[in-house]
Amino acid sequence: MGMTQVTVTVRNPANLRKAWDGLFLVDTGAYDSMAPAKYLKKIGLTPMGERTYELADGRELKLKIAVAQLEFMGDIVGTTIAFGPDDAEPILGVTALESVGIEVDPRTQRLKRLPAVRLK
Q: Can you give the residue range of the structural domain that contains 58?
């Protein structure tokens, strides 16, 4: 399976002028999104708690989390974002994608908009 990336603007919901733009790897195996902690802190996000995540290699990692506003492909969604290591590749998880009705076409590896957001 190929890699799909998308530019995402991460905003602090408490002050929408504070934002960071990054190129995120779309990961349909990840529920939540993740960005380097240094960028999340720079826009004033403060952790609301911690969550344990299972990595692709089976290891578990406890990361701080917050709620952020993500904007990509013309849509905006509020979602959980994890404070990753400062050198981590940003990840856009499936929760954010499905919340705005976007999925990855398995044939072309491109993001495609569904005719409607699922509400069932």
A: 5-113
